[in-house]
Amino acid sequence: MNRPSRPDSAAPTVARPLLASRVEAGFPSPADDYVERTLDLNEEVITHPAATFFLRAGGRSMQGAGIHDGDLLVVDRSRDPEEGMVVVAVVDGEFTVKRLDRSEHGPILRAEHPGYAPIPIGPDTEVVIWGVVTWVLHRP
Amino acid sequence: MYALVDCNNFYASCERVFQPELEGRPVIVLSNNDGCVVARSQEAKDVGIGMGEPLFKCRERIRRHRIAVRSSNYALYEDMSRRVVQTIMRFIPDLEIYSIDEVFLDLDPLAGRDLETLCRTARATVRRWTGIPVSVGLGPTRTLAKLANRIAKRSPDADGVCTFPTDETHRTRVLESVAIEDVWGIGRRWAKRLHRIGIHTALDMSRAPATEIRRNFNIVAMHTALELRGVPCGELETDPPLRQTLVRSRSFGSMVSEWDDLSEAIASHAIRAAEKLRHENARAGHLTVFIHTNRFRDELPQYSGSGGCELLPPTSTTPVILARALAIGRRLWRAGFQYKKAGVMLSEITRGPTQGGLFEQRDERRDDRLMNTMDRINLKMGSGTLRPAASSFTPRRWTMNQDHRSPRFTTRWDELPRTR
């Protein structure tokens, strides 16, 4: 999707559509008038290329949010994490995906699976919000 | 006004972004071949790991301080470098990429704005978006921006950003505190000669008569002296500079002694160098080949050799460069030595159409078409699909050692970071 390139060629790739029919003098296909540019998924999914990273989801803790083992996460580090967002966080030196939420004791990371306890975010826990999950690509 | 943005401990910082368990632990990154240390996190510097130290000399400290060791992962570093530059460009569009972890900024188009604050915002944004910590030095010349960057890195008060002082006393004090060998562009050899004529600090250099520096050294040294005074010399090279030489070399994974193994390595470097040359639409007028044994193994017999030849007319044609490189290599090779490294250097690089020699026998246009086709097939089917028979089909003993490489987190679908 987002191939690495030199800064000077960092402009988005432009895919050129093939003409729908062969050009034959005298008989242009009326369909050629409707040829449009192709769709580039990057345009829809990535707003800040420099700040966007892909991660692979592991485990079942976010099944309730529709995130399954092996799904592709699009993570935007330029977004401010807000309550209710799904985020990638670093807990005890490991990446985890959870929903940023609030309990009566303060902010927490909430799993969306009954088997997982919420993780409190406080001065005595080592939790860092790494980025905001903006899209999930799931193979049905 | 210029600024220099320098990524702190860049390779180690890249490793940390995707391996958060390395946070707070000393991290070192090894050279191409896991031979020696090329990058250190602050913690690794603090426990006394030196730049360029051979890995085998660090083993004991690595164990004692639980130092995390990584092979260089250039796919990752290049991608992160590109992201850092893209982020800075949102704030300051006129920049020169000086190296993989340094960018010079031209702040003149933004005159009238609070430049230090702008740089602080850019710095904080780079940190948040990419995870890479950077330091920024601002100054009226690039040499002074580089000095200010040193202060930004070392002084906790600076908080990562420092403007070179404008008032005379402060300015003098800073220049006095910088040893001449720490000034940008002054190598060890020049420093020695400068000491001999009584120039020991950046302040001495800035006060030396420019004409004398030029007479004793050259125009580059004179520019350094002027830049230390605050007189800018030379524009930012916002277009990448055209290279003058092109080197392809690599240490062997394990040492080789036979000509067969050595020649394959030389052939592979020659082919890659020629490819790179064509990619830049350039031709080389001179070719050098070098080989040497392992200087850290002083119990083994030592040998090093290099040799070169003119390429007339200048060329980028693989068979020509390859044949000459192998001929030189064959002359250099001596039996009975364990070789550690081989390389190929192309120099006297020119661009644009060649002036065909009157008595040239090769049909250069035919060569160009052939090379063009080969490059296109290799680009499409994968590097090395088509290659002259002199380079081997299977990687042999001379391929790289990369025992500790982390995944290519940002450039390979099957190596993405995983969440738990």
Any overview of this molecule?
The complex is a heterodimer of chains A (140) and B (420). With 140 residues, chain A is mainly beta. Chain A has a domain at 49-137: Umud Fragment, subunit A (Ribbon). Chain A is 4% helix and 31% strand. Chain A has one helix spanning 41-45, and strands at 52-56, 72-76, 86-91, 94-103, 106-110, 119-120, 127-137. Chain A has a 7-stranded antiparallel beta sheet with strand order 1-2-7-3-4-5-6, with no helix packed on it. In chain A, strand 3 (86-91) and strand 4 (94-103) form a beta hairpin. Chain B has 420 residues and is an alpha+beta fold. Among the domains of chain B are: 94-229, no CATH class; 246-381, DNA polymerase, Y-family, little finger domain (Dna Ligase, domain 1, 2-Layer Sandwich), CATH 3.30.1490. Chain B has 14 helices and 12 strands. Chain B has a 5-stranded mixed beta sheet. In chain B, strand 5 (95-99) and strand 6 (102-106) form a beta hairpin. Chain B is globular and about 65 Å long. Chain B starts with a strand and ends in a 39-residue tail after the last helix. The model of chain B is unreliable at 393-397 (pLDDT under 50). Chain A binds chain B through residues 3-8, 10, 48-51, 53-59, 72-73, 77-78, 88, 90, 93-97, 128, 130, and chain B through 20-21, 23, 75, 78-79, 82-87, 89, 97, 125, 128-131, 240, 409-411, 413, 416-420.
